[in-house]
Amino acid sequence: MQLSAPEFYTRFARAYDALARRGPFVATLRRALADALDPEPGATVVEFGCGTGANRPYIEELVGSDGRYVGVDFAPGVLRVARERDRERYRNRDEEDGNGGEYVRGDAARPPLRDDGVDACCGAFVVGMLPDPAAAVREWADLVGPGGRIALLDLARTTRPGWRALNPAFRLFVRAGSPPGTARSLERSPATVQDERVAAAHRALREACADTEYRTLLGGFARVSAGTVE
Asked: Which residues contact 149 (CB under 8 A, 6 or more apart)?
């Protein structure tokens, strides 16, 4: 029986957590996302596709103890691991020292949140999985409202000369990390679809925001966009 996407990511939640926290260069990328989002101290930040919560410490450093982190993901297994990690992290801290963070099961394309009180939102490695990533980004812009911040961190094949020779290896990486049957259901290479979805999401961010920032890392395979909603 073929696993659904939430079932797939639930089954491999612990393996994903190990990669998300200790994989090569992940700390650099997660720091880049938090710095690009640049939330104010005391802000409420929503992360879509939060996985096992690997970005939470970087965001909390910026919002401080008066801020609030909300992680949203569609896979119950990764949320269980995220909550376990938080219990380990805060075990020796007074309850009041935390920032009131929480995890919510939900769809990044249909935010399960009210549109008041959210100051910023972000997504890491998630828009490539959404059928209509541009529409999702517009939903996020509506959620934070004018003056709110949005940031995206994604992987896609590089266009940089000298690095494009690694694109075939990246294509295999994307296929290996996709639920079984993804290529057949898409009728195209998962890497090609991911490239298109990432481009559409980052374009939608630029259209929704002013003072947008864009940078690439890791030879052009990683893309970071951020801006303030107009």
From this structure: 37, 38, 39, 119, 120, 121, 226, 227, 228, 229
**Local structure of residue 124 (DSSP, 8 states):** E
User: What are the pLDDT tens digits along the chain (230 aa)?
Assistant: 567 888 988 898 999 899 888 888 999 999 999 999 999 999 999 999 999 999 999 999 999 999 999 999 999 999 999 999 888 877 655 544 445 579 999 999 999 887 678 999 999 999 999 999 999 999 999 999 999 999 999 999 999 999 999 999 999 999 988 887 777 777 889 999 999 999 999 999 999 999 999 999 999 999 999 999 99
Q: Which of 153, 155, 126 is nearest to 49 (CA)?
A: 126
E-only strand ranges, the chain: 44-48, 68-73, 102-105, 120-124, 149-155, 209-217, 222-229
* CATH code assigned at 197: 3.40.50.150
Overall number of domains in the chain: 1
* Secondary structure, 3-state, 36-50: HHCCCCCCEEEEECC
Three-state DSSP class for residue 110 = strand
Task: Tell me which residue has tokens 């959620």.
Answer: 143
